[in-house]
Structure to design on (126 residues):
């Protein structure tokens, strides 16, 4: 994504044209971070799926990153939670965004390689 696109996204995010949950999460991490997924969920009172989907979008844009992992024991079960921090440096934001895009493309290609024979057969049928 180009610098202009990223700036447009940020402008839309803060103007209210994009998901308000993402704005709230981004602002909260920026002001209070780094914070774990559990801390964010408890403090912002978002359902887990809402929170993680917004965190994914913010990571895709390079605005936040995982800075650590914390292990908790909750009701006798051990759990690991990512800790997110705000990325202040614009060059780092662009680098992280590029890395995420490459990672997602590689995951897609890996899935394609695993199922390419099945995909070819199903495409031939239709």
């Amino acid at each position: 994504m180009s610098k202009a696109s990223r700036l447009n996204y940020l402008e839309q995010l803060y103007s209210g044209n994009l998901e308000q949950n993402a704005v709230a999460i981004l602002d909260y991490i920026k002001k209070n971070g780094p914070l774990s997924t559990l801390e964010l969920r408890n403090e912002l009172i978002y359902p887990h799926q809402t929170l993680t989907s917004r965190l994914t979008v913010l990571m895709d844009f390079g605005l936040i990153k995982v800075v650590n992992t914390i292990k908790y024991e909750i009701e006798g079960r051990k759990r690991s939670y990512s800790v997110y921090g705000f990325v202040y440096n614009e060059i780092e934001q662009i680098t992280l965004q590029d890395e995420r895009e490459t990672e997602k493309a590689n995951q897609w290609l890996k899935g394609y390689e695993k199922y390419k024979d099945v995909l070819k057969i199903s495409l031939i049928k239709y």
User: Anything to note?
Assistant: The chain has one domain: 3-125. The chain has a mean pLDDT of 83. Residues 3-125 form a domain with the Arc Repressor Mutant, subunit A fold (CATH 1.10.10.10). The helical segments are 3-15, 20-32, 37-44, 48-60, 90-125.
